[in-house]
Amino acid sequence: MTRANSESWVAPGTRAFDVLALGEPLIEFNQVQTEPPMYLQGFGGDTLNAMIAAARAGAKTAYLTRLGQDRWADALQRLFESEGVDTRGLRRLEGQRTGLYFVHHDRDGHHFSYARAGSAASGMGLDDVRGAWLPLIADSHWLHLSGISMAVSESARQAAFLAMQLARESGTRVSLDTNLRLSLWPLDLARKTLTDAFAACDLLLPSLDDVIHLSGLSSAEANLDWCHTHGARTVVLKMGAQGAWVSHQGQRLHIEGRIVDAVDATGAGDCFGGNLLARLVQGDTLPEASRWANAAASLAVQGHGAIAPLPSAAQVRAALS
Hints:
Blueprint: E1 17-22, E2 26-33, E3 38-44, H1 46-56, E4 61-67, H2 71-83, E5 85-86, E6 90-92, E7 100-106, E8 109-115, H3 126-138, E9 140-146, H4 147-151, H5 154-169, E10 173-177, H6 187-198, E11 203-204, H7 208-215, H8 220-229, E12 234-238, E13 244-248, E14 251-255, H9 268-281, H10 286-300, H11 313-320
Parallel strand pairs: 1-4, 1-9, 2-7, 4-5, 4-6, 9-10, 10-11
Antiparallel strand pairs: 2-3, 7-8, 12-13, 13-14
Helix pairs in contact: 1-9, 3-5, 7-8, 9-10, 10-11
């Protein structure tokens, strides 16, 4: 994995965006006290987390989604604007509402409960992609999606696959984070959908827990093999506190984990993905970008919520030094 390989991570020609994502932004209620339960209101949604992480790492970002006309959607739009995430891909729809989720914590980690059925974003479909979103996709180096982008509805699944197809036709690279949430769809459907998507992406970003559920295998090496067998070209396997495995063109490299006082792992994998893509566009090799992303995620777990603790580029640079 040499520096020469970094050239392949940037789409040809000048493009308006480094990274854009398709998905559902959400209002977050994150548990900060158990008895009595108390929740801190914030923002989240996996691909939104990734785009804000990428923006804080210096990337030019945009987001493709549908929002309602409620006060929560207004708050999300202000968040996009304050974080420098381009809003031309936001569709505001009268009479629609914005999804919510709750994060609960216990000794086994963090757990998600969703209130997003029938949300504006769950209604995204083929017409959205063929319409206002297509020129934005074609004007970005990367399109980023996730398993959650596909799990929220059948029409969203169709939109995600069309977006990946049109991205590839435009020379736009595609990254996919598995982000498996079995509360949103059954395992068999998730496995079929995600493995179909492996072959449509240039960079696969699964977590070890996700791919263990999908494959039934236990070791990192076996799961990397499984991902490649199902069509993934390049895989960066996120291992949490154990770092990450990078698997590209028959070579594998383990990125060591970093020892920190973890408070809340919500959004850590999204932080990893957004930082990885931002650094690839800025010219890092895949191992260099993965080390940066690993450091960024280690900073993100030291605060509460998905977005508030996402680090700046200066903070990551200081951690690496």
